[in-house]
Amino acid sequence: MSSFKFLRSTFALQLCSRGFSTETAAATFQPTKVAVRTSQSDPTNHTMDDVGKLYTMPKGVRDKLFPKYVLPLYFEQLCDTFHETNIIVRQPAIELIDYLKRADYNRPIIRYVIYGKYGCGKTLTLIHAMNYAFNNNFIIVYVPSVWR
Questions:
Q1: Rounded-to-integer distance, Cα 31 and Cα 141, Å
Q2: Which pLDDT value is given to residue 3?
Q3: How many CB atoms lie under 10 A from the CB of residue 129?
Q4: Is the pTM above the cut of 0.90?
Q5: From residue 100, how far is each of 9, 50, 55, 72, 132 by CA, in Å?
Q6: What are phi and psi of 24, to 5 degrees?
Q7: How far apart are CA 19 and CA 25, in angstroms?
Q8: How far apart are the C-alpha atoms of 24 and 147, rounded to whole Å?
Q9: Which residues contact 59 (CB under 8 A, 6 or more apart)?
């Protein structure tokens, strides 16, 4: 079922239930509970089952990896507003972390390219991968922008 049809049927159900008493309406419409957060805060343990869920980066890790004004401004503002650093687990980040796990570091250096349109999540995918690297004692050299 497409998301539009689902929303339309849900909205129609809500409209129909308004005519009933509160008890009947509550029995008729049961909202589904969706897990928004993953229980794993370590990116090493993230799997494809966690894609689309949020995980919280510990404040100490965030402060060590990303000093003030290194992260994108909009993301810094969200983190300051909610007093925590939540990152959505994306499929490209899971793939990149899997490549890092399976890499043979006795061979020549492997280079990974994260690409996509503006605003598609490249920076936060990189932040997710950097959190994995930090937790697994990789040496990290982060250059947020070569133009600054």
A1: 46
A2: 54
A3: 23
A4: no
A5: 44, 18, 20, 24, 9
A6: -70, -40
A7: 8
A8: 61
A9: 84, 85
Whether residue 91 contacts residue 129, with contact meaning beta carbons closer than 8 Å, is answered with no
Are 125 and 87 in contact, with CB atoms under 8 Å apart? no
Q: Which residue has the tokens 């990290």?
A: 140
- Please determine, for residue 34, whether its predicted confidence score (pLDDT) is greater than 70: no
* Residue 72 tokens, joined: 């994108």
pLDDT in tens, 57-72: 988 889 888 888 788 8
What CA–CA distance (Å, rounded) separates 84 from 70?
A: 16
Alpha-carbon distance 75 to 87, whole Å?
Answer: 10
Amino acid at 119: G
pLDDT band, residue 147 (cuts 50/70/90):
confident
Rounded Cα distance between 68 and 62, Å, is: 10
Q: Do you know the residue count of the chain?
A: 148
* pLDDT, greater one: 145 or 100: 100
Q: Is residue 45 a contact partner of residue 138, using CB atoms and an 8 Å limit?
A: no
